Automatic annotation (TrEMBL):
<dbReference type="InterPro" id="IPR035940">
    <property type="entry name" value="CAP_sf"/>
</dbReference>
<keyword id="KW-1133">Transmembrane helix</keyword>
<dbReference type="Pfam" id="PF00188">
    <property type="entry name" value="CAP"/>
</dbReference>
<dbReference type="InterPro" id="IPR014044">
    <property type="entry name" value="CAP_dom"/>
</dbReference>
<feature type="domain" description="SCP">
    <location>
        <begin position="41"/>
        <end position="154"/>
    </location>
</feature>
<keyword id="KW-0812">Transmembrane</keyword>
<feature type="transmembrane region" description="Helical">
    <location>
        <begin position="7"/>
        <end position="23"/>
    </location>
</feature>
<keyword id="KW-0472">Membrane</keyword>
<protein>
    <recommendedName>
        <fullName>SCP domain-containing protein</fullName>
    </recommendedName>
</protein>
Amino acid sequence: MKETIQLAIGVMLLAMLGCYIYITEFYHYESTEESSKAAIEYLNQLRAQNGLPPVKWNKTLYEFALERLEDMHERGYYSHYDPVTHETLIYRYVEGYVGECILNGVRGTNLLSNGLQSLFGYEEEAIDIWSKSTMHKLILTDKRFTDAAVACKYDMCVLIMTGG
């Protein structure tokens, strides 16, 4: 009985340590241009399944997505809107037809639901989560979009899409 309790406590401690390492790993994660490009290729697979043309990865949108992540993190908010002016931030920087998806708690959902990490990157996981949301899927599969980029940092991801 004593050994069973010790084993159970040991397993719980290892699980807690694994969660801590997992969470701190993500908190220090930052997308790269390569991981963003790979995610857009992944998004294009979803678009192809829906009979839509691919979107092109856009470096300017990628840099803006990283700026959005920094702004939310530094100012302590999570929203499409500026917490002071209540202005939709994306229209301040991007012209034309625009869509934005934001997500926080990336990877935590996967860890808690199945105890395993994804077989792909944080960006692709965010796209998977967005594709299961009716409103976000409308953005992902909108045929008017021609350019896109996704970035993840801290525990958040931002996808920005533009078109004519």
